[in-house]
Amino acid sequence: MAREALSYTDRFFSYSIDMLCIAGFDGYFKIINPAWEKTLGWTAQELLSRPWNDFVHPDDLEATNLVKSSIAEGQTVFQFENRYRCKDGSFKWLSWNSFPNMEEQRIYSVARDITLLKDAEEKNRCIDWMVNTKETRSKETKKKNYVPEYGNLTLLNKNGLIKQSIDKTLLTDSANDYLSLLETSSAIYEKNGDYALGIFSSGWCQFMDRASRNLCETPENREALSGGKWLCHESCWTDASQKAIDQNKAFDIECNGGIHIYAVPILAGKQVIGAINFGYGDPPSDDETLHLLANKYKVDFTELKKRALSYESRPPFIIGLAKERLHSSARLIGTLIERKMAQDALKESQKSALDTARLLEGVFNAIPDILGIQDAYHRMIRYNEAGYKSLNIKEGSEKNHHCYELIGRSRPCKDCATSIVLKTKKAAQIEKYVPEWDTWFEARSYPILDEKGNITLIIEHLRDITQRKNRKKPSTP
Question: What's the pLDDT score for residue 8?
C-alpha cells in the first residue's frame, strides 16, 4: 500500500500543471516538478544548480527575501506574488503558497502562473482609470493656455524650420494628443535647441519649472537658457532632447524635477530636424527625496509635498500608450515638414527655371541676327524679334508654316542648311542668296536630339553677309 501511495503521489507531482517544489532554507531548490520547465523554459538542472534569487525579478528581490525570512521563522505564506525570469528573458508572475518544515529545514511550495490574470487586471485598471478620470482630464485640459511668468520661449525662435513650417495650432493639437493622457509637460525643439512649442499641463511641472527659472538670477531668457542653472530646461533639452537629436534615437531619463522625460527625434526623410518630448511618472512622495528637491530648487517643502501628492498617478499602460502617441506625433510633424520642404524646393526650382527662361528669352531677342526654331518636319515654331521684323510678320503667324513659305515660295530653297541637318542629324553651315530680299546670308542650323538620337528641334541662325560679299566683287572698269 505504501508503495502504491508513493506511486500515486509521484504521478500527481509529475502531472500537476501547478509548479510544485521543495526548497531549502539555503536558498536553493531541491526538487521541482516538470511544470517548472514548461512554464519558465529552464531545465531542471539549471533551476536546481543556482539560487532561486537568480531567477527573481530585481524589483521583487527585497520582498522575496522578506518572505523567505518569515518562512524560515516558521510562518506559512499564502498568495505571495513575485516575478520569475524565463529563459527567453521575459518574466512570469507567480503566486505562491509555502509551508515550512523546521526539522528538515525545507520549504514545501506550490506556485501558480498568474501572468494572464495580472495582464487582465492591468487592462481593467486602465479602463477604470480612463472612465473615472475623464471629467478630471477634461478640466485639466483647460490649462493648456498656461503661459509662464517669464514669457513665451518660442518668441526666441526667429526662423526655425519646425516653427516656420507648421502652424502653432497644429503643433499644439499634436502635443495634446498624448498630453491628454498625462497632464504633465511637453516641448518640441528645433535642431539647434530653440523652442517650437512648450506646454505645461500639471501643477507639478509648472511649479518646478518656475522655481528653476528663478535660480537663473537674470531677466533675460536667452541668458538663462544657456546658464546651466535652469534645471528643468537642462533635463528637458540637454539631458534628453539634445541626445535624441545627436544620436537619432529615443531617450528616457530621470529629470532633475523628480519625474521622467521621454524624448524622440523628429525626422524629415532621413534628416533629424528636431525632437519632441514629454514628462511622465509620479513625483516623489517620500519626505527625504522631497526635502532634497526643496533644497535643490529653493522652494518650500510643504508646498512641494502638497503638489506632489495632488498628482494623479497614471497606470503603466497609459504611459506606454502616451509614448506610442509621441512617436506618432514625431512622424506626423516630420512628414508635414518633409512635404513642406519638397513644396518649397519645387517652388524654388520653378522660380529658377522661370528666371532662366526669362534670361534666355532676353538673350534670344537681343541677338540682331535672325534666329528661328523649327520642328523635325521643317515647320516654324517661332522667331526672335529680329526674325519677326525682317519677315514683317506678327508673332504666332509663323506657326505650322515652312520658312520658305514665309517669303512667298512654294518649295524649299535649293541651298538649305536645315535640309542638310534633317538628313545628317549634324550641324550644317552654308552661304546662300535670297533674291526676294536681295540679300546674302550665312545660314547655320543646329539639331536638338532626344535620348534616342532623334531630331526634336532645329535652331536656324541667319546672318546678313551682303556687305562682305559686295566687297569681294571685282570693281567695274
Answer: 55
